[in-house]
Each structure stands twice: as C-alpha cells, then as structure tokens.
Prior knowledge:
Elements: H1 2-12, H2 21-35, E1 40-44, H3 51-62, E2 66-70, H4 73-83, H5 95-99, E3 100-101, E4 111-115, H6 116-119, H7 125-145, H8 149-162, H9 164-180, H10 182-185, H11 188-191, H12 194-206, E5 210-214, H13 222-233, E6 238-243, H14 252-262, E7 267-268, H15 271-277, E8 283-290, H16 294-314, H17 328-342, E9 346-349, E10 369-370, E11 385-388, H18 390-397, H19 399-411, H20 432-447, H21 453-468, E12 471-474, E13 477-480, H22 484-490, H23 494-510, E14 516-520, H24 544-553, H25 557-560, E15 563-565, E16 570-573, H26 577-591, E17 598-601, E18 607-611, H27 619-632, E19 637-641, H28 642-645, E20 656-659, H29 666-673, E21 691-698, H30 708-716, E22 721-723, E23 729-731, H31 752-763, H32 766-772, E24 783-790, H33 808-839, H34 845-848, H35 850-875, H36 880-897, E25 910-914, E26 920-924, H37 929-943, E27 951-957, H38 969-981, E28 988-994, H39 997-1000, H40 1003-1016, E29 1023-1024, H41 1030-1034, E30 1041-1048
Parallel strand pairs: 1-6, 1-7, 2-4, 2-5, 3-4, 5-6, 8-21, 14-19, 14-20, 15-19, 20-21
Antiparallel strand pairs: 7-10, 9-11, 12-13, 15-16, 16-18, 17-18, 22-23, 23-30, 24-26, 24-30, 25-26, 27-28, 27-29
Helix pairs in contact: 7-8, 7-9, 8-9, 13-14, 16-21, 17-18, 18-19, 19-20, 20-21, 23-24, 26-27, 33-35, 36-37, 36-40
Amino acid sequence: MAEVTQSNLLSELNFRYPLRKYQTEILDLVNKKVADGEREIHIVAPPGAGKTIIGLQLVSTLKCPSLIISPNTTIQSQWGQKLDLFLPPDAEAFGSRHLLGTQEDKPLKPITLLTYQVLSTPGREQEYLDKLAHQAWIEELRNGRSLSVGEAEIRILDLLQNNPKAHQKEISRHASRLRRNLSDVLDLNEVLHENALALLQSLRRQNFQLVIFDECHHLTDYWAAIMTHLVKHLGDPLVVGLTGTPPEGKSASQKTRYLSLVGEIDYQVPTPALVKEGGLAPFQDLVYFTEPTETEFKFLQEQHEDFHDLIEELIRPTNQSDQQSMAPLSLWVQERVEELNAKPELLVAEQPAQYVPKVKKINSNTHGVRFNKSDAKKQKAESTLVPMSGWKYFASRRPQLATSLCRYMYKMQIPIPREIEMNELIEESPVLEDWMVLLEDYASHKLKVSADKTDQKLYARLKSSARKLGYGFTEQGLRKQASPVDRVLAFSNSKAQGVAKILDVEHRNLGDRLRAVVVTDFERMSATAVKSLDGILSEESGGAIDALKTLLASPIGAEVNPCLVTGSLLLTDKRIAAQFVDAAKDYIQREGAKLQLIVKDSDNEAYSEITDTGAQWESRFYVGMATEIFERGITKCLIGTRGLFGEGWDSQALNTLIDLTTTTSPVSVKQLRGRSIRLHANDPAGARKCANNWDVVCIAPKLEKGLNDYNRFVRKHEGYFGITDDGEIQCGVGHVHAALSELTPAEVFASIEDFNQEMTDRALVREKIFDLWKIGQPYKNRALGCIEIRKLRKLALTPPHIHRNLNYKEHASELRSHLIGVWGEYSILSVGFSLVALGALHLPLMLATVPLLLTISLAAKKYQSLYNKLQIETCKPNSQESSLTDIATAVLSALQRRHFIPDTVTRESIKVSIRTDGTYRVFLDDVEPEQSNHFINCIKETLMPITNQPFLIPKYEYFVGDVEVEEHGEQKEKRFFRAYLAGKAEPRIAAYYPVPGLLARSEKGREAYEAAWNKYVSPGFIVATETKPELLNRYFRMGPSLAQRLLWE
C-alpha cells in the first residue's frame, strides 16, 4: 500500500506557484538535453535563485526515484521544507513522510536525501593511504638516491626502528599528497566504511535514475572521487549539479574531477540578473577603514625598521659626492636587465591556446548565459617554434621578477631598454612584494654566492628582515610565511570599534528595522596563534567574542542588543535575556524538543549564556532558534562565525552584513554576501529592501606592509559585481569606490575619514541605491570592458575646423564668406530699393538714399550678431567629456577601417560618463566581448602615460586664455578670433599621445589611425620615436591615471 501511495504522490508532484522565466528556461534546457541523450546538467545560480525549486521541479517532471546529496544537514533540511510546495493540498499532512527520506529508511524512499559525508564515511582509508605512501616513498628513494627496492625498504625499516617520529613524518607527507589525488588511486573496497558500501548497494537496488548534487562546488577532491564511483555504480543516471559558486582557483586535476562529474556550465544566472528580475534584493558594497591601535602600530613599525634601513642603504649611491655614482641595488638591477636583454633570441615552443567554452549570443529578454557543450570543440594547436628575445623569455618564465625590475628602474629613473614593452603595471611604484622579489634575487644571485664577508653579512640581514614581514629566502626562491604583521592587521582591535560605528549609522537610518549580522573567522584565537603577539593581541582579538564585548560596552549595544552564536556558545545581551528565553521556549515547544534552558550569568560580563545539557542542544538547533528570535527583532544583531553564517544559513530579514573574515575564496565570498540579499516576503517594506554589505579593513598606509588587509579586501571583490555610484554594475573593488583598485597607491588613504564619511553617507540612501538598480527594466546579460580615467589634464581649445571636417584655411575662408555674405545680401537689397525710389517713384535723391542707409544699418546689426555667434562657436573650448568622445571616435573609426569592429557600430555606441569623484568612464556598447576588448585596450594605450612607445601622434590646441578667470580674457578671445579669421592663428602642440599597439604594428593600421585622428581629434602626423627620441624625454610619464574595469549590462 505504501508503494502505491509513493508512486501516486510522485506522479502528482507539481509546483503550485508560477516559475520564474529563467527557471522555465532551465527546465526546457534539461528536457532538450535529455532528449538528445546527454546525462550531465550543470546549473549555476546565486543564493536565493531557487535552486531547490529547480531541483524538485526536475523530480516532478521526470517522476523517477531521485537521489539528492547535500554538503550538510542544514541544506539537506531545506529540500524537505520546499517539498510541501509541490504536494497536492490533500496530501500536505502526510505526503512528505511517504515520499522523502534519508539513509535511515528501509527501504529507501523515492526521494532520498543524503549528505556527502554519509556516502564518504572512511573505514580503512588511513591504512590504505599509509600503504600507498610507503610505496611512494620507495619510488622517491629509488629516483632521488638511486637505491634498489630492497635498499629502500631497509632504509625505511631502519628509520622506523631508530627514529619512528621521522618515519611517521615522511609517511604523513606522502599520504597528504596522495589524499589530494585520491581519485587517481581510489579503490572503494579499500577506503569506504562497510556501512557506506552497504548504502551504495541499496541505492543501486532502488534504481535511482536522477542524482542531484547540491552545492556541487565541493566536488573537487575526495568527495568528487566517491561521487564519481557512485554515478558509475548506479548505471547511467541523469546527473544534475547545482551551485551558486563554481569552484575557482583550483588545480588542473581538481577542475578535471569536477567537470568530469557535472560537465561544463549549461546555464548561469548572474546575481545582477536576478536582482533585475526582482528575485533578489538590490545591494551595495561598502567599506569602513580603521587604523591600528597605538600599541599595534608601534609593533608594526618595529617590524619594518630593518627593512627601511636596508632599503635606504641599498638605494643610496656609494659615493654621494659623485653624481654619476649609482646605488648598489640600482647598479645590480641595471646590469641584470642589460644582461637579460642582451641574450640572443631563442626558438621557443608556442603554447596551445586554452580551450574556452563558446557562449551563445543572448538577447535582452534572455535570463541566463547558456554554455553549449555539444557545439564546443576543443581546439588543437600544434606546437610551433617562435623566436623570443632573451628578455621576453625571462619575463615569460619569471613575470613577477620582470615586473619588479622594471618598476624599480621606472621609480629610480634608470633608462629602460626600448625592447621592454611598457604598461600601466610597470608605472606603479614598487610595492612590498616587488621589493621582496627584487631583494631575494639580489641576495641569492649576488650576496649569497659572494666570497666577500660583507656581502654575506648583508645577506643575513636581508633574510632576517624579510622573515619579520612574512617572507623567506630559500633555494626554491621567495616563499611567503606566516607573519605577525598580517595577523595584527587582520585581527586588529580597532575593527570591533569600526563595527560599532557602522551599526550606529545603520540604526540611525533603519531604527527597529535594522537586522545586522557580524561574521568572523573564529570565536576566539588559539593560544599558539597569539603567543608571538603577547601584549599586542589577545585570544579574543578579531573574533566573535571581542565583537560582542565591544558592542555591549558601546552605546549602540543598548539599541541592537547583540547575540553571539557559535558552534559551542549562545550568548545574549543581559538586558534582553529574559525576553530571549521566553521566545526560545516558544520555539522549543513548537519544534517538539525536550529541552530545559539554563541561563548562566556573570557579574563581570554584560552577557548571559544560554545553554542546555540535553542531547538535542546542538548548534544546528540553536542557530535556527536564534535566527527566528533575530527576525522578530528581540535582538537586532547576530555575531557568529563563517562556518555557521555561510553556506546554508538563511534569514530573509537580514539587511546589513558586516564581514570581518579573512577568506578571499570566491566560493566563500559569494556565499556570505548572498545571505543579505534574500527578499523578505512577510515584510510590507520588503518590496524595496536594499542590503548594505560592509567590509572592515585595517590599514597603515605609511608602512610597506600596511595595506595587506586592504589587498585582501581587493581579492575578495575580484570577480564580484556590484552597483557603482553612477548606476553601472561593475566587477571588482572599483564598484565600492572609484578610487579603489588593485593598484591603489598608499597616497589615496591620506585621509581615511573622508572615505568613511562618504561610505556612511551612501549607507543612508538605500532608496537611491534601490532605484539605481532599475528593477524590472530589460537587460542584455553580458559583460563589457571599460576604462576609467582620473587626473585628466585641463584642455585648451581643440582646432575648431576639426568638427566641420575642414582644414584650418578652408574653415577660416568659410567663416569669412559667411560674414561677407551679409554685406553682399544687404547691398543688393539697398541698391535695388534706391533705384526703384529714383526711377519709378521719382523721389528726390535725398529721400532715395534712405532705404540704402536703413539696409546698411540692418546689415551692420546682422553682421555683428553673426560675428558674435561665430566667435562664440569658434572659441568654445572642448569639455573633457567631449574630448574623450572625440578620441574614442577616432579609435573606433580606425578599428572599423581595419575590420576589427563592424561598420554597423556608430558613434552613439560610445558611452562617456562621469562618476561622483570626477572619474571618467568610457566603454563601447552594442558590441561583442572581443570587439569591446579591442576598443578598450586601444583607448587605454592611447591615454596611458608616455614611456617608450614606438609611435606618437600630436594633439594641437589653440591657447586663447581662460576667459572666466584671466583679466582681459574677453579682449584675448576677440584678438584670437580676428587672427583665426585672417588665417593667422597658430595652434601649438599641447600633448603627444601613443598610437595603440593593435594599430601601430602595421603601416595600414597607422594610416587608418592618423586619418581618424586628423578627422576627429587634431591635425598631425604620426612620429616614430626611434627618429625623435627627445619626445620620450620631454613628455615622459605625462598622462592621466587609468584603470581597466568590467561592467555588466
């Protein structure tokens, strides 16, 4: 009877609400792929996109026994909650029990929910790995020490008997490496527990035809190996991978395991698209900067002292009285680069291009990016030998050192060989990483191998100094090490104070509607982590406990009544303890749990601990309880760790996220930020919910390693899209503020108070941010490159004849003709009237001349009016925006002439806008990504500072005088216009601009660019710097600050 009920219920499953359009498209795509015989589906959708609904709808559509596997029980339970939305109304009370089950059910239910851990329970895994490690050790000894198998066995046995600790260390080293590649050596019968093996047999007997891997980004290592064997064990099931964050930054073998299980991405729903759809709440990313406490800063300074002294010593000329004398490091760098550059060309095998899945073109009504695997064929590129200079070969092998060498030369004004191609990265001042790479090369190649005792002492000093800042000099090169400096910045005591200030701002704006969560890495630090920082940081610094205590001690604590939730503790503000416990008892009663809450108070603390001794008192239970109490507003601020408030945790009421974690993993970052953008269905104001996501960053700009925490913040936002102040959706840290980028110089942080004020001002205008997202308006769902320009020079007068498509002489002649034409027109009229008056009307001569005088007067007025108009039009200077548009038009025209961009793209597709801080943004709309990249790269290369580019082109301008400021400016303008009319005005070269590389590399490309430049920007001929090297010196480093960005539209 039960089987009949299950079968009937499975066939009657159907979602009772309308699906979103992208959900329908996904289901249509699945049906098509199944019809085509494909057995792998890979769906990427952000948290809140309804992946659970998509999965259950697939079960409903296919109506077959289905296995759903999740990373933890919290996520697993969400499937059971959503199933009720698919059951017929008359089956809601009992349907889930008959349909849904876990591994505990015998027999298994038609929809079985498991965790990856249950299927991967190890049995003799360690024993199996130790055996493999022993074999790997033997192979290492045979290859490294040329021992026979027998000799290797004897050596290992001697080590086991005489030094068991060393033996275990070697076995553990090999076992760790093997565990990472376990799928390559895996034997299920050797690894899995007998219960897991029995469960696999049960699954096979049940004939599960659909397997859904929820949060499948976890499947890159051990779990991936087990799941691959599971799929083979089940025969040929349909495999569906669901994730909001596909794994990034993984090794080639990890990527292979992942993709072999779920396949390439079939459909991706970007977070901005879902926000535009109204499926997720709009949001903005904000940052609050703090500075180390006085004690912390003093410690950081001490760690930098040796480094400062050494740098000062190494860049100081050996003979300061001799201007030609070079500093030791400068001499080394110059000789090193010259040596590399002088090496003969090598024939190097060209690497085949990496395979990139083709992306189907999508229109403005499409809600997802589809990756077509059936059409994507891996391109095979035969290895070909290409000539490569000594420097280029070195730069391809050691790119970081090559960049550091060039940055040092650029900073110290050492001539850079012409063969080295300049770019905006080289023009930045060396950062700490550059100095360390440079010093390690200097130390290893010169000092360490020197017989000079002075050099050897300097080597020891350099090595010691580097260690203090978290770097090690080894035979394998520079290695990063754990650094006390990093920990002080990451877990500074100032951050908790920053959290209090953020909450104060947010509460002033939202009042009782504020629902904030503060996420940390840990509850408290381990004792060993702070051992070397005794007196600087405590065990609580940077953790959840520290955040709770700081808030309770600040005035905002009384308003938000914070509550701490970790894997071992539940603490709440004493002021609401009684109210919290009453709400908790209601929750316990509804859940049917048998718990008697215990409240522990301490006279020394402002919080109460809520606990219970029962077996049901576990984090999974009390996290859900605390979340419900939080959503009711009894506490307005939850504090906890990333492990609890990351993947799987959900609170629709959450509207403010404060991130104190140090993780930069794309998976973790996207999951954490996805918590705050769930729509609040039961809140009347939820329809216009807009979330604020805060990072708290501690910086010490005056110290070389003082921006480490900032650099971590930059990495967090890599690949992450957010709204900018001017309404564009932009990837990377630039969407937080226009001045921020991966190359932000320390000078930008001269006044962090200004930054913080701007951020808090933006936090108060959630309604404005909501409107910037333009919810419900169509979008194209594609990424476009753009260039952002800061510190653009003040412009003089662009030659007026350019916009008339005339040369100067032609334009001046045309203006004179217009003015002379007035006199000609009125002369004819006046003579005609006078002749009529004398001849036909027989008027006296005196009266007959009246019309002549009147027309002359009218002609004079019209002439003056036209003269003034032409003067205004001719002398009107270009704005920076219009000048950028002209340059962009010239670039577009040249690229079109060389067939890099279609002729159908018009000037109207060029978009130039200005951000609130005065930064200009330029991009090309209505084009494919490759065409956009060509355009943006050419714009960037045109505007970038002059260094050693092979070709330049001048921009001529007329310098009339600033009529708004300069005294007698009006007279200067009149004088200029008279000279211009007479053909005697002389423009001057205001600047030279580099010719972009894509066009500079061929004569036809240069011709196209010169013609376009002359038509839209300025007259002038392209100049080869090889023939006029003085131009490079005269205009060296002249140009604005540039940053390349990525937009979504």
